[in-house]
Amino acid sequence: MGDLLVVGSVALDSVETPFGKVHDVLGGSATYFSYAASFFTQVRLVATVGEDFPEAHLRLLQDRGVDLDGLTTSRGRTFRWAGQYSYDLNEAKTLDTQLNVFADFRPSLGDGLRRAPFVFLANIDPELQLDVLRQMEARPRLVALDTMNFWIQGKQEALRRVLAESDVVTINDAEARQLASEPNLVRAARAIAAIGPRTVVVKRGEYGALMMTDGAFFFVPAYPLESVYDPTGAGDTFAGGFMGYLAAQERTDAAAMRRALVYGSVMASFTVEDFSLKRLTRLGPADIADRYAAFHDLIRLEQ
Amino acid sequence: MGDLLVVGSVALDSVETPFGKVHDVLGGSATYFSYAASFFTQVRLVATVGEDFPEAHLRLLQDRGVDLDGLTTSRGRTFRWAGQYSYDLNEAKTLDTQLNVFADFRPSLGDGLRRAPFVFLANIDPELQLDVLRQMEARPRLVALDTMNFWIQGKQEALRRVLAESDVVTINDAEARQLASEPNLVRAARAIAAIGPRTVVVKRGEYGALMMTDGAFFFVPAYPLESVYDPTGAGDTFAGGFMGYLAAQERTDAAAMRRALVYGSVMASFTVEDFSLKRLTRLGPADIADRYAAFHDLIRLEQ
Fold this sequence. Notes:
Two copies of one chain form a homodimer.
Chain A: E1 4-7, E2 11-17, E3 20-27, H1 29-37, E4 43-49, H2 55-63, E5 67-73, E6 80-85, E7 92-98, E8 118-121, H3 126-135, E9 142-146, H4 149-154, H5 156-164, E10 168-172, H6 173-180, H7 185-195, E11 199-203, E12 209-213, E13 216-220, H8 234-249, H9 254-271, H10 278-281, H11 285-299
Parallel strand pairs in A: 1-4, 1-8, 2-6, 4-5, 8-9, 9-10, 10-11
Antiparallel strand pairs in A: 2-3, 6-7, 11-12, 12-13
């Protein structure tokens, strides 16, 4: 079982969907990622929170065995995000972003973190992502990163540099088209792989995920759910299941990548069933195994 | 190999997409369906055209072995449809519809057609779909039908009656939600199955197709193509591949349905690669087998 390092945000979210409303609940890319990955492997989280961050949230992660040595408390308030979803749950409308302590976040890896074989660089400034890689003692076995339109637009050069040093990128379809300047997704995926990553995972929300590894495509649909309450964190729990599985197996071959894509989809499918990490906190290993089997049945051609 | 009867439209289409423009080319639901299904089984087409319908188009279908005994020529002009697609190829904007001879189309099945074991009722007035079923000598082994928002809105009672007598319905996602008055697709599919059909196929265009058979779901993505020129006819060739395969195998069990869904997706993936039936006319059995294998690889979890 390989250690899995994640660098990203821990936040307090306020979210409104057609099905309800929550205020200052636990959120953040590294939070969702860590919680999901903790079902598979040893996770080490690097992030920063403010002095107002509730102890109970830390205990939630500790209870899952997540190593919080790299989580610092900075003077000031925790990063806050407020967003709204309409019935088209595929796209969030950001109502408010308060970076607070996250504005000065400079990840610093302690000794125990610099040798992690599996690394996930959640959606932060690509210059910080690069800086994290510079701090690693040796080239990790697998480096994955997430990014967004904001960095594609504003810091594309740095983003391309960190992509050149990564093995996996997770990106949504609109962002893939934007980064590659190419409307066709297949050609966009190939163009992104040409920058560096061997594996490109295109997230399509309710339409599933398309992965290109070594030039071959694999597709997993989103799980057909009867109730979707809040898509916040789906992409990060997806990445958590994906990387958590690979780290646990200590494998990076194409067959393992396919199973990892399903485990990512499994974790995302739970996340959207309730607000914040609520559904995940009610999860046991049997639930994950059952939904993995259900996914397999959903895409199995020969029985 | 079971005979496959299709009742629907044969038309002349004018289509504009960002990639080109064609005028009065061969189109129509029964045309696309027949051509696609002809690669699998004996197809018998029931439709009507006007006196202006080009001989060459008939020969195209005859050359594929499609039985045209049920294709009548009526006084007047052939049904014409004009549509436009923007870069979002998922939705057509209808510019013009001239029903012409299709307005008075009353399908009449000759002796040879009333015993077909496999029947596809393409997207026409549900009262005509019902009338076709009334003319069958015995209950066919498998009845599938396609429909659209126009009939869901204007003739829902007749539509529900023909659905109650059908085994398979193909419908796009917006129409499934409309027919079931239910925004959630899983619950919509269950509601539609409750009307009668054992199998509900929800077509999602570039996002693939979701099938529910006996309550179990199966998903096939659209094939990741580098070039999509014109989505016209994709849904009908999808149905043609689906029904053609089942008729050829003389099977209607769930495992065969899954393979049929992939063959449907295979045929649709070719259709969108060029205007009208152009790509289909360049198709050989090896192309179909190759793309079926490519689809299998695209969704195969265990290798």
